[in-house]
Recover the amino acids of this structure.
């Protein structure tokens, strides 16, 4: 007990002296600096986490953009009629969609899921790519058979089918999380296209009557592009 009392007495003496006051001032400054340093470290750590999240978000946006650009290029890469006859166009997205619209004219429109690969691009974060035909119209004309008795003789007018349509392309990409505690974020983008001027005819380039083939591939035009951000929780 006496030792404690003496220690307290000495501490009070130090505090009363100028050197003791200076020491307490220095200790106070050190504690303040430590508090500032701690807040700076916390802010720096938060900034690093924010930068990581922003970087991963940016990469997800770039992936989304790459997918839409590839689809847009495939829709706009319209060949000439000779290329179609040589079967160089049969695997293109533009041909398959327009042909499917024609062949399923009387069937309800279904949402189609696509699986695509882009050279040099990691597609593992892509949740889904879907096509949805929101509107389609096919106008049929002809045929009108030839009338050789007229002067001049009237040539046969082929049967044609003119296609117009509207389509939404929806791409959903998941943003990589910075940590397991973060809620996974989804970026959903919707591009709306319009097809006009696509024509199928029952005659080929030589004029022979046969199956309905494209005499004009028409044109797909991008009408709008929308980004929708949402969050999901993993089970």
């Amino acid at each position: 007990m006496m030792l404690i009392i003496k220690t307290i007495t000495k501490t009070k003496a130090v505090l009363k002296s100028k050197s003791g006051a200076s020491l307490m001032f220095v200790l106070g400054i050190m504690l303040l600096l430590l508090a500032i340093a701690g807040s700076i470290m916390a802010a720096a750590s938060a900034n690093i986490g924010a930068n990581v999240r922003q970087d991963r978000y940016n990469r997800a946006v770039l992936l989304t953009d790459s997918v839409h650009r590839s689809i847009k290029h495939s829709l706009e890469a319209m060949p000439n009629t000779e290329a179609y006859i040589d079967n160089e166009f049969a695997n293109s997205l533009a041909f398959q969609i327009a042909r499917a619209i024609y062949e399923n004219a009387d069937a309800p429109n279904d949402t189609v899921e696509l699986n695509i690969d882009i050279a040099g691009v990691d597609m593992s974060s892509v949740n889904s790519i879907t096509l949805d035909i929101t509107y389609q119209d096919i106008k049929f004309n002809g045929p009108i058979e030839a009338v050789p008795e007229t002067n001049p003789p009237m040539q046969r007018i082929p049967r044609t089918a003119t296609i117009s349509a509207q389509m939404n392309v929806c791409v959903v990409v998941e943003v990589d999380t910075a940590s397991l505690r973060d809620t996974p974020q989804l970026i959903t983008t919707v591009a709306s296209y319009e097809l006009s001027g696509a024509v199928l005819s029952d005659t080929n380039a030589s004029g022979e009557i046969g199956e309905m083939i494209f005499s004009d591939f028409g044109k797909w035009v991008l009408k709008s592009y929308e980004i929708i951000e949402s969050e999901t929780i993993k089970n």
